[in-house]
Amino acid sequence: QVRLVESGGGLVQAGGSLTLSCTASGFTFSSYYMGWFRQPPGKEREFEAGIAWNGGQTYYADSVKGRFTISRDNAKNTVFLQMASLKPEDTAIYYCAASAIQVGRPRLNEFHYWGQGTQVTASS
Fold first, then answer.
1. Which of 122, 102, 101 is nearest to 110 (CA)?
2. Which residues of the chain have pLDDT under 70?
3. pLDDT value at residue 103
4. In 3-state terms, what secondary structure has residue 74?
5. In whole angstroms, what is the distance from residue 22 CA to residue 77 CA?
6. Sequence-separated (6 or more) residues with CB below 8 Å from residue 39
7. 69, 89 in Cβ contact below 8 A?
8. In whole angstroms, what is the distance from residue 115 CA to residue 2 CA?
């Protein structure tokens, strides 16, 4: 049974930091591209950060570039999202997702497994 479980969300003041974790089970984590998405209230889900199966390539949306860092520990089946200098507009439910695509950056519909999400709220 495939599972992705996010943790680390919460309430933080603007300018603060949080680190999200996503632990996977039920599939070969080390072979999968991992991504972090977020969905603000009333808006579409957007791809914010991604990391290749071997950690060799990363992707960041312009909205988080320079503030967020994605990393992974294949030995622990876990992907992380370190978030710094948080802004109120970063408030959203954050989801991790996995894609079997190993070359390039997957499209949204190529992410096969999803977590349940964790709420991040940055207050002004």
1. 101
2. none
3. 85
4. helix
5. 8
6. 45, 46, 92, 93, 95, 117
7. no
8. 10
- 64, 68, 53, 77: which is closest to 5 by C-alpha? 77
Strands ordered across the beta sheet of 18-25? 3-7, 18-25, 78-83, 68-73
17-53 pLDDT, tens digit per residue, is 999 999 999 999 999 999 999 999 999 999 999 999 9
Phi, psi angle pair for 12, to nearest 5°: -140, 150
Nearest Cα to Cα of residue 22 among 37, 7, 44: 7
Please give the pLDDT value at position 38.
98
CA quadruple 78, 97, 91, 58: dihedral, nearest 10:
70
Q: How far is CA 103 from CA 23, 37, 52, 61, 124, in A?
A: 22, 19, 8, 18, 39
Tokens 């109120």 — which residue? 88
